[in-house]
Amino acid sequence: MKVVFLFFVTTGCLCLSSSLSVDTYLTSRDKDQLKNVLLTGLESENLSDVFYAVSGLQQLNQQIPDVQAVCNKLVKYVGKAKSLSLDFVYFSTSAWKTIATCTGKLVVDESVQEIYAMLEKKDIRDVHMSDLYFGVSILSNLNLKPKDITKLINIIKRKMKPDDTITDFGYSIHLLASLGPDGRFAFNRLSDAIMQVDQVDRKFLQFEGGLSVTALVLTGVYKFCDAVQCNTSFPIQNDQALMFSNYLLSRKSVQTPKGAYFLLNALKTLSNNKYHLPIAATLVKPMGDLDDTQKILSVRFTNLLGEPLPTSLSVGVESAMLNNKVVMSKNKFKSTADKTVYELEFNEPDLSIGIYSIVISATPLEKVKIPLLGNTAIPLEVKVSASSVNIVDFKVGTTDNDQQTGPSLQTLKYGEKLSTKLKADHMQRIIVRFAIKDHQVKKHVQVHQAFVRFTNTKTGSQSVFVAELDSQNNYKLDMDLGVKSVSFKHASGLYSMDLIIGDSLLKKPIVWHFSDIKLKFSEVESDVSESFADFYKPKKLISHTFREPEPRPPHIVSLLFTILSLAPLLVLFVLWARLGVNIKNFPFNLSAIGFHSALASIFILFGMFWVYLDMFITLKYLFLLGISTFLFGNRLLSYIARRRNK
Amino acid sequence: MLIKYYLCSILTLSLAAFANASKETLVLLNNLVIKETHSILFNTLKERGYHLTFKSADDPTLVLSKYGKYFYENLIIFAPTVQEFGGSLSIETITQFIDDGGNVLFTGGVSTGSALRELAAECGFEVTEENSSLIDHLNFDASDSGKHTLVVTSSSNLIKSEEIVGKSNEKPLLYEGTTVITDPKNPLVLPILHAESTAYSYKPDLPVKDYSLGTGKDLLLIAALQARNNARVVFSGSLYFFSDVAFRTSVQKVDGKTYNISGNQEVASNIVLWTLKDRGMIRVKSVNHHKVGESSPPPSYTIMDMAVFLIELERWENGKWIPHDANDVQVEFVRIDPFWRGNLNNMKNGNYEFTFKIPDTYGVYQFKVEYNRIGFTAIRSSTMVSVIPLEHTQYERFILSAYPYYSSAFSMMFGVFIFSFVFLHYREDKAKGE
C-alpha cells in the first residue's frame, strides 16, 4: 500500500515538477490577522494557548503586551493546579522561558522528580512519546539535563515503531533533534514517515491531522537533519517542499493560537534552513492589472514570510501566450528601487487586450549557498484590460408588433439621455441597437455582459434583458412587450432604461441611463396571483352567514287573534249567565270530586308537558290519572243514571 | 448488585443518546483541509452542542442508517466536486433521509459534482452549468483575482426573514461560486440570497453565446427548501461563503466603498443554524376549546353555541422553548370548506384566543390552525368536534305569534272542564219552567 502511494507521490511530483511554484506569501495583512489571533490566545484560560500565543508573537517579532500579567498568570496557574500533568508543566515552563523577562519562580520541582523517575523506568510500555518529549523539554527549559543520554536514546529506540502515529513520530524526531548527533539511527524512519503524507489537488502536501501535525513533522525533520547532519541526503524533495509551502500558505486564515504558532514556526523553518529556500513569485496587483495607460508589469519575489531574498535575481520571460499564440519571448525584467519588485515593459508588439499566460524564470545573480526553490517556470496570468470603450451607433425606439410600419428609431450619443419619454404598450416591441468600439484602436469589441435594465421608478423592481450579438458585431435587443410582460409582473408605469456593459477586460463597467419609458400592459392579466407570496401570508377572513329567521306578524295582530280565540269561551259564559245555568245537582261524594279533579289534573298535566315535562313522564302520569278518571267517571255516571231513574 | 449497575448504566446511556439525538451531524468533506479552512463555522456548531462527525465524501464506510434507524439528524456536505458518494450513501438514501425529516446543507462550487447536481434537482434547485460562475463587473471585491468572480452582494438581497438570516445590517456579503435557478411558483423553495441585477452566471473564460444560464435577480446564490414534513434543505453555490477567510476579511468594493468586515459570519452561521433547526422552530404547546362560560371541551357543540378556541404556541430560541408571540395566527372552523376563518387574539405569553358562534348547520367539524410563515416551521393542527342540531326541548317555547294557538288550546281544555261540570250537574228549575 505504502509503496504504491510512494510511487504515486513521486510520479505525481515528477509530472508536475515543471509547474510547481508558490504564488502567495505571508503579507503584512496576514501577519496582522495572525497577531490578532495570537493576542486573543494571551487572554485564554487555557495554558497551552498562552504558550502558543507567547511563542507565536515572538516568531512575529512582536512585543507581548503586559508581560508581567502573563507571568503572574503562569505562576498562578501552576500554583493552583493540584497535580501537574507533563504537558501543563511543559507549556508553562516554555512560555516562561520564551518570555525570559519574568520575575518570580515557577514551582515545578515535583514534576522534575517525576520526569527523572520516568526516565529511569524499566517498563516503558505506558510511557508516551509525547510525555518523553515534554519531559526532556521541561528539563532543558529549566537548564537541566537528563542524567543518562544513551539510556534515553535506547528508550526512544525501543519506543519508535514503524506503525507509530504521525504525531508520535513528530515528537520523537523533535526529541532526537534535541539530543544531538546520537539520534542518527532514526534517519531511515524519515522517508517512511514522509511517505504517509497526503497529496491534495496535486498542489498541497499535508499529514493527516492538519496544520499542527504537518508543521510539527516538517519542523522536526529540519531540526533533526540539522542535528545529525544529513546534508546531502535531505529527505524532503524540492517539489515536496514547495507543496508543503503551498499547503501552509493556504492555511493563512487559521483562527486558533495553536494553528497560528505552528504556521509561523513552519514557515520560518522553510525560510531559514541550510537546505533550500522556497521563493514566492507574486504579481503586485491582481493579474497585473495592465491597460493602455499602465503598461508595466510588476512581480514581487520574496521568501514565504514576505522578506527580501538574499540575492538579486535575473528575471526573464520564457514564453508568453495570448489565445494560444506566442506573443513575446526572452524579454528581461528590470530591477527596481524596491529590492523585491521586478518590472517588465509590456508594450510589444501592440498591446491587445486579453489574458496572457506568461511563464517566467528567476535565476540568482550572485552565488548563493542555499539553492532557491520554485524559481523556474513560474506560470503567471496577466490581464490587459481596456481603459475605456465607446458606444457607437446607438439607436432606440419602438415598433408595432405586426411590423407593417418600420421602426421609428432615435439616435443617441454615449452619455446623453433621450429628452422625450418613450411610450410602448403590450402590442409593441422595444428595439435597442448599438455597437461597442475600443477607444484606442477603434475596433469592434465583444463584451461578456450587455444588458438593458428596466427599473420601475415607483416600486424599484428591476428586470434585465440581454442584448444579443449579431454577425457584424452589433448588439441588438428586440423585445416583444406582450410576451415579456410576465417579467414586468404586468405592472404598467414609468420605467428607466439603463445600458449595462461589463467585462473582466474592461477597466470600468458602463451603466448608462439613456431613457425613460412609459409601459402599458393589458389590464386583464394584471391580477395574476403570486402563489409563492400567498402561501406565507395570512388568508382572507371568513365569517359564517347564518340563516335569516322567517318573518313574524306584528305583536298587535298576534294579541288580537289571541283575544279572538278566547272569545268563544267568553260567549259561552255570557250565554250561560243569560240562561241561568247552575250546578245544583252536584253530589258531594267521592266519585264526583275525584272525577272532576282528575280531569282537571289531566289538563294541568298537558300544560306541564308543554312547559317542561317530557313525553315518558307525561304518559306515566297520564296512565295513572286516566285510570282514576275512568273509574271515578264510571261511578259518577252510574250514580247520575240511578238518580234519574228513581 | 451487578444487575443494578448494568441497569443504571443502560438507563444513563439511553438518556445520553436521547439528549444528543437532535445534535448528531455528519459532515462530508472533499478533503480534510476544508475542516480547517471552515473552522469558525464548525466551532460555532460545536459550541451550540452539535456533535460533528467528519468524513470524506467518498469514504467507503459511509452509512446514514441501519435497520431503519438514522445515526444522524443532520447532514452537511461541504464537498462541491464529489461525483459519487462513498459507502451506502446515494441520492436515493439522502432524499429518503430528507423524507424522514433529516436536514441537509450542501454547497456547490464552480465545478459542482454530478452527485450534488442530482441532489439539488431532487430538491427543486437547478444548478447552472458546469464551470459557470457568478460574475458581476459592477460589484466585486478588491481582492478579486481578475475575473470578477469574487462578488460583493448587498445584504438587501437576503430574504426578509430574521429567523433565517438574522437581523438586517449594512455589511455586504462575499460570494464566489455558482448559482441556482428555481421555480418561483414553488412555495416551498425560499430564495435566501439572490444576485444583484447587474450579475449574471457564465463561464468566465469563454465568450458569451447566450444567457440561458440566467441573469440578474432570477439567479439564486443560496436557496432553501422547507419540505412539508419541515425537513430543511439548503443549497449554497459557494463553499467560500462559509469559510474562515470570508468571515474574517474586510470588503473593498470596486466603487471604493470599504467595510471593516464582511457580513458573512453572522449570515452564514444563522443560515446553518436555521438549517439544523436551531432557529425558526415553532410548535403547538396546547390546544383547548370550550363553550363560553365553561372551561373544558364539551362532548359536542350544539348549533348556534358560542365557542372559544384557545391555542398556545412556543418557539425554540437559544436552547429552550419560549412563548411565541405573533399577531397573524389564524384559525379555521372547517367542515369541508371553512365556515369561519378568524384572527386569533394574542393574549400574551404565547396564548391565543378566538370566540365565535358555531354555524347553524350540524356535522363533523375541525378546528384547523395552519400557520406558514417564511422562516418558521409550518404548523398544522386540527382538532375534531361534532356539532349536533337542537334537541326538541331546546327550541323556542313561548312565541308571541303563536299565542292564538296556545290560548285556543287552553280555552278548549278549560271549556271542556267547565262544560263537563255544567252538563253533568245541571238541575232544571221545574218551577220556572212550568
From TrEMBL, chain A:
GO terms for cellular component: oligosaccharyltransferase complex. Pathway: Protein modification; protein glycosylation. The chain crosses the membrane at residues 556-576, 588-613, 619-637. Residues 284-384 form the Ribophorin II second domain. Residues 393-519 form the Ribophorin II third domain. The keyword Translocase does not apply. Residues 1-21 form the signal peptide. Belongs to the SWP1 family. Component of the oligosaccharyltransferase (OST) complex. OST exists in two different complex forms which contain common core subunits RPN1, RPN2, OST48, OST4, DAD1 and TMEM258, either STT3A or STT3B as catalytic subunits, and form-specific accessory subunits. STT3A complex assembly occurs through the formation of 3 subcomplexes. Subcomplex 1 contains RPN1 and TMEM258, subcomplex 2 contains the STT3A-specific subunits STT3A, DC2/OSTC, and KCP2 as well as the core subunit OST4, and subcomplex 3 contains RPN2, DAD1, and OST48. Subunit of the oligosaccharyl transferase (OST) complex that catalyzes the initial transfer of a defined glycan (Glc(3)Man(9)GlcNAc(2) in eukaryotes) from the lipid carrier dolichol-pyrophosphate to an asparagine residue within an Asn-X-Ser/Thr consensus motif in nascent polypeptide chains, the first step in protein N-glycosylation. N-glycosylation occurs cotranslationally and the complex associates with the Sec61 complex at the channel-forming translocon complex that mediates protein translocation across the endoplasmic reticulum (ER). All subunits are required for a maximal enzyme activity. This is Dolichyl-diphosphooligosaccharide--protein glycosyltransferase subunit 2.
From TrEMBL, chain B:
Pathway: Protein modification; protein glycosylation. It comes from the Eukaryota. GO terms for biological process: protein N-linked glycosylation via asparagine. Keywords: Endoplasmic reticulum, Membrane, Signal, Transmembrane, Transmembrane helix. Residues 1-21 form the signal peptide. Residues 24-275 form the OST48 N-terminal domain. The chain crosses the membrane at residues 403-424. Its main location: endoplasmic reticulum. GO terms for cellular component: oligosaccharyltransferase complex. It is found in: Endoplasmic reticulum membrane. Residues 289-426 form the OST48 middle domain. It is a single-pass type I membrane protein. Belongs to the DDOST 48 kDa subunit family. PANTHER family: DOLICHYL-DIPHOSPHOOLIGOSACCHARIDE--PROTEIN GLYCOSYLTRANSFERASE 48 KDA SUBUNIT. Subunit of the oligosaccharyl transferase (OST) complex that catalyzes the initial transfer of a defined glycan (Glc(3)Man(9)GlcNAc(2) in eukaryotes) from the lipid carrier dolichol-pyrophosphate to an asparagine residue within an Asn-X-Ser/Thr consensus motif in nascent polypeptide chains, the first step in protein N-glycosylation. N-glycosylation occurs cotranslationally and the complex associates with the Sec61 complex at the channel-forming translocon complex that mediates protein translocation across the endoplasmic reticulum (ER). Component of the oligosaccharyltransferase (OST) complex. This is Dolichyl-diphosphooligosaccharide--protein glycosyltransferase 48 kDa subunit.
